[in-house]
Specification:
homodimer, 354 residues, alpha/beta, 434 Repressor (Amino-terminal Domain), Rossmann fold, 2 domains, six-stranded mixed sheet, DNA-binding
DNA sequence: CTGTTAGCGCCTTCAT
DNA sequence: ATGAAGGCGCTAACAG
């Protein structure tokens, strides 16, 4: 654009044809009040010269960009990629363009991304927030910028969101492990500031409680939500004196890291240790050991997030409660979970009953 | 933006402070000729009101957007996701924003994406082309819009590109299979219009030729480049009278589909059949059977593509030859390939020597 | 049916 | 050091 690019404008067309620029504008926008002959000449000319409308100028006057922003932590993570796909495809089929920004779970990057989106005057934003701070969220709220949260929600404010029922999903996974006889179940998860982390811990506790298994806070390990951290955490965990007989990982990504560690230690899944994940990313079924996991509908989350957002934008709907949606997850039992064998595990609870 | 969003402009700041709008503009852009006191007042006001500059307006006058476009087939595919990450992170650290569009390997969508980018007046475009048609590419060329191809290149034109040495990569993989005793090697690949498909076939032939194994065109199967197609193609292939003893898949994604099929048929890898992929996506090492594959540096491809593009943009460099780069791939041997066993394979070549 | 005028938000050039 | 004028490309409102 800055270069010597051949970018032609309606002015060029107008000049060539000896008409006024807004006759050109009207013809190009299929507005009435243009004679068929003139219209044809203009269309022909535009086509021949390779006219491409300048969206910047158009948006500047229209006051809308038909563009939405999507802010999430990591597009290389298939989980977010799938949500992004849901948002993008739905947006596109509704005439909207999506701008995506990755934050790498970094607060500053997230705030910059929000500013970027705002400076580009997107009509609305979909955010999967890092939840390290939230004044940029509250600013969106007070400036009446349409936005919706996905995966996570900020308890401090009433906002629109689309999440899955994290507590119930975690409950299903842990209940499954418990039903296989596991009592010593470690939950590897992320930072406690994240709403879904909290909710899944609640589900974990709920499932234990139901079977009168005491809750041991030491069994909840807070790492970072990366494959690498899943690997390191599991490695350390399995080398302790009392390794668990089962692991419930916050995400499939974390679980994949766990698989790597378990394999490296020469242990077998589920023979030595059972493993369950969360999300059901596409690769979960192709893994070393097909992974038992809790499926959440990523694509649909993206899709519905956009649908809510578009309503907020177009109806200028300021009541967030109408746009808070919780989708139900589903337990997918594959081969990474099995009956407790006690091969490597010590059972402190039964040995030293509370 | 269309809604009642509180979006404030330099005009608002000017009005509040009783100064002219371009004093505000100068202060906000750290230009000289503003008294310290005025500058402070303006900055304070901007900050307090939550001023966010309007990039649309700024770009309109500046004639550049500091935005680039990235067009590729599928962001959910970790291969493209990784390239996208390379582009996006490099762009961001250079002050550029990236707009991404997925084409699903569809020609019309690709052309629409190009038009979208052009209408948004991106400063340049990175494209992994579908190669079904190329007049949109030639239009970029004749309109002097800076762009660079990745992964694939269009032979018809001299353009900038960053690709990997596909022929050599394929050669390495097939040479490896041949060295394990395989003679009946099927190559599952994509449509012949794609440059990398052609080049990898050449590498496949080269490796066979070197060991005087006759080339049988029937062993090159053209499917689509999706996991699903890899699955279906392999299923059909393994049910024929003369299934191969090894498969070289165009991509890891295709190979994962093949794994699914092979597993479903109750066959073992590499016991019954050896399998090699291409790309080395992150999951390749965590698969059912860790996959032997040809690693190409996806992140670096994205990174270098941006670096070339920025040169083309800033130096208005119209000599594409300086921006044609071929990166070297690397064979990664894992567990999905092994010595030929002849368990399920018939060897038409040795049985019926040519 | 067509042209003129004005303005979206911002920046550049030239006066003051 | 500051303001006024003009224009980026486009569209809306009005005039002819």
């Amino acid at each position: 654009m800055a270069n010597g690019a051949n970018v032609i404008t309606i002015k060029d067309i107008a000049k060539e044809l000896g008409v006024s620029i807004n006759t050109v504008s009207r013809a190009l926008n299929n507005k009435p009040d243009v004679s068929p002959i003139t219209r044809d000449r203009i269309l022909e000319s535009a086509n021949r010269l390779g006219y491409v409308p300048n969206t910047l100028a158009r948006s500047l006057v229209a006051g809308e960009t038909c563009t939405i922003g999507l802010i999430c932590s990591d597009l290389v993570n298939p989980f977010y990629a799938r949500i992004a796909q849901g948002v993008e495809e739905t947006a596109r089929s509704n005439g909207y363009t999506t701008i995506i920004a990755s934050t790498n779970e970094d607060d500053i990057t997230e705030r910059q991304a929000v500013d970027l989106m705002r400076s580009k005057r997107v009509d609305g934003i979909v955010i999967s927030p890092t939840q390290q701070s939230h004044d940029h969220i509250s600013r969106l709220l007070q400036d009446h910028i349409p936005f919706i949260l996905v995966n996570r929600h900020v308890e401090e404010f009433q906002t629109a969101y689309v999440i899955n029922n994290n507590q119930h999903g975690a409950y299903l996974a842990v209940q499954h492990l418990v039903s296989l006889g596991h009592k010593h179940i470690t939950h590897i998860t992320g930072p406690l500031r994240i709403s879904s982390v909290k909710e899944r811990i609640n589900g974990y506790r709920q499932a234990l409680q139901e079977k009168d298994i005491p809750f041991d806070p030491n069994l909840v390990i807070h790492s970072d939500l990366t494959l690498e951290c899943g690997y390191k955490t599991t490695l350390k965990l399995m080398k302790t004196k009392t390794p668990p007989s089962a692991i419930f990982a916050y995400s499939d990504h974390l679980a994949i890291g766990a698989i790597k560690a378990i394999r490296e230690l020469g242990l077998s899944i589920p023979g030595d240790i059972s493993l369950a994940g969360y999300d059901d990313i596409e690769y979960a079924q192709f893994l070393d050991i097909p992974l038992t996991t809790v499926r959440q509908p990523m694509y649909e989350i993206g899709q519905r997030a956009f649908n809510h957002l578009i309503e907020i934008i177009q109806l200028n709907d300021l009541n967030p409660k109408k746009h808070q949606e919780i989708l139900e997850p589903e337990l997918i039992i594959r081969e990474s979970t099995g009956r407790v064998t006690g091969k490597i595990s010590h059972f402190p609870y039964t040995e030293n009953p509370a």
